[in-house]
Amino acid sequence: MSLQYYSTRNKQEKVSASRAIINGLAGDGGLYVPESVPKLEISLGSLPGLTYQETAMVVMRLLLTDFTKEELSYCISHAYDSKFDAPEIVPVHVTSDASYLELYHGSTIAFKDMALSILPYLMTTAAKKNHEEKEIVILTATSGDTGKAALAGFADVPGTRIMVFYPKDGVSAIQELQMVTQAGDNTCVIGIRGNFDDAQTGVKKLFSDPELKEELAERGFRFSSANSINIGRLVPQIVYYVYAYGRLLKNGALKEGDPMNVVVPTGNFGNILAAWYSKQMGLPVGKLICASNENKVLFDFFETGIYDRKRPFHVTSSPSMDILISSNLERLIFESCGKDDEKTAAFMKSLSENGNYAIDDAMKDFLKDFVGGCADEAETSREIRRVFRDEQYVLDPHTAVASSVYRHYRERTADDTPAVIASTASPYKFARSVMSAIDEKYAEGEDFALIDALHEVSGMPVPEAVESLKKAPVRHKQVIGKEEMRDAVLRFLER
What we know:
Strand content: 15-25%
Low-confidence stretches: none
Number of helices: 21
Number of strands: 16
CATH topology of the domain at 92-109 and 232-460: Rossmann fold
């Protein structure tokens, strides 16, 4: 039986998985969610024997039911191949107090590769299945990592164009270089004078602009998204939590049926939401520990039940978490209020117009598996230094936030349930922050010199994704105000 998806703001709008992937965002501005969440159809004890690709098939065939087995096999085999520098795709690094799920071994050295390596294949397959004749324009806002991963995935893919907006002064030097040097005749990268929320809000406005949609249709285009608002981004992220459970069974950290806590450095809420979905599918996930940096809007939400974006915005060393509007939380809000689409729409309207909303006690109880935590810049640096000193293991700032939050959680609760920490980016993406945390003498210095220093102290090979940037020409130089985004899109489509 085919699993249908509907909007969080209108359950009457039902579509297939492939149509949801093409659309990206529902017509009413809501996010697509499955009508029901299917249970895993294999025993937990069989997970250690599965490759990553086999695990992906187990999960994705249950959620993307209008794709044939052959179509999914094609998408999976082409996505998870030699572009990953680890044969297991997602290694698990075990330290004395946690297991780090290394999600950064893809071509752009961040966890976004896990989903954005497969999304272009899912998108083009979906377009064929639905006889989509319009050229698909991928419109994406990024806080640093999604942009490059999406660009790498969609560059020169026939029938698509991709446009990425990023906060000009809100990403690391390496993140920016990765984006602005991107090749591909169908790519466009633009810096926004503002923060990620400005870029993300602008993209959502473009999606919901009926006049723009009509104009694009007349010219043979349609929008879609590569952000985690697209269900085609979210479903592949569920896979690595199922795979992680199998790895922990295999190395003896867990016994079949034992719970596994999950710790995720969280910005737009997609990564930790995928872990929640894995739990709904039957994976024995215990606590979902949501780690925030100084932009702790999610920490405050789980503490109080009030989501309030009206607060100072902090630029930190973990820019992918520098977000005050966590879009994917809408999916969890929808589930927590009994799948009430009208109530969810009212919450989102209040967030847009008033900057906040408050959930009731029943919804708070629904969210009891989530635990919030936060780490400021000083704590993040101390955690990088501590783990390097004690474990000879290097964390990027995002993973360090999660590691610090988890350590404090254990000290506070004495919960010794085995945990997996989502390690979301290579430390080489943030060499300046990492090296200055390890030793203050590295606080100054040229970015590539710091990369060489990181290699010297850690022994970790410099990823090709970083090495290739040294001589890559800058191809994208536009910087605009957030109010100019609509005009920029129209100019890009005139090419």
